[in-house]
Amino acid sequence: MKPIIGILAILLLVRCGTPKPSDDREAIAAAMEKSLRTETLDKWYPLAVDTSYGGFLSTFTFDFKPTGDQDKMIVTQARHVWTNSKASERYPDVKQYKENARHGFLFLHDVMWDKTYGGFHTLVDRAGAVKSGPNEEKTAYGNAFGLYALSAYYHASRDTAALALAKKSFAWLEAHSHDPARKGYYQHMKRDGTVIQRDASVPSTAETGYKDQNSSIHLLEALTELYSVWPDALVHERLQEMLYLIRDTIVQPKGYLQLFFLPDWTPVTFRDSSEASVLKHHNLDHVSAGHDIETAYLMLEASHIAGNQNDTTTLRIAKKMVDHALQNCWDPNGGFYDEAYYFKDKPGITVTRDTKNWWAQAEGMNTLLLMADLFPDDEHQYYEKFKTQWKYNDTYLIDHEYGDWYEAGLDKEPDRKKGLKGHIWKATYHHYRSMANCMDRLRGKR
Residue 257 above 60 pLDDT? Predict the structure, then answer.
């Protein structure tokens, strides 16, 4: 993948400046690299490699002991493949990363891919038996991560079997999930790819039948990775479609992502309801600063890989999203709060959950440094906030005793110190990408 920072400089009609030399940039990069290698990669691999049944073990205690049934979800398995693929290119002297990536690819190819209907199964048990019945739900989100992993593995290995499966995965999404009339992708499908429609039987708090920002941003991410290794015209069309859909429809005027939509992209919002109703449905309707700052990065990366020239619109909206998150969900001591809401009878925005999930803090660090290098003289002082975020993560999220990251910041949830280090929703992808990107930017390589 081409360096994003060099291309983004070209996107600016007027350069905002160049990163100022700083003695602490290499020191931070070195500390991150030590943590990435010894406290993340060395803790997870090869421990997580399942030599008995294939793929990767999912669930680990706080001190990295395998625990539980070890069910395997497409999202986790794909993220492990992605991380090992990227690590094999970053650290080619460490033989196991390439081997681990191939090991995980074979599990995706031989077990997670549905040989009858196509697409990736959502969940299997440790031995690979599908955990759902004939109406098993497949998701665009899960299939996006399968596509993402296959593309990264092909980039690292040049294994043509991976590219072939990536093409099949893209075609499956095109045939079953893509909405040619109203654009974007349906999230929920039956095993045979039939789109699941929302009806009166679906509880008001369930997301079934809605389109959503989360699957959309990760489809954008997957299409970006795929197009970088297979510059197909239809892939490019879908990449642009998702970029513009997210940027111009899902991002709201204030600078945050609406979470859920009807199939015609009408927003699902409870703002005109009572506060009790809003809080009851908070999983469907809130401001998620973590997703906002992550998406700012993903949009800029997608625009670059798509070859868009002078895309100042995407740059402007990405910056707006970061600024909104900083102005409304940032803790001056470090960290982005998990949830906030614009209540109809209250001024401004209200933080409704002041916890700090690990993935949001990782993504925040990555995007803050990107903004710091693009806008070094901005009033938001992105570089100072990046340093604050790194210090926060190093203090409250990275486990310097047992390794890896706690699931949430201990300043808000100290009980997470003894929580699971890994499960089907927590692996290595968010913090690996963040630290790897930050190391490269700090050293002038991006």
Answer: yes
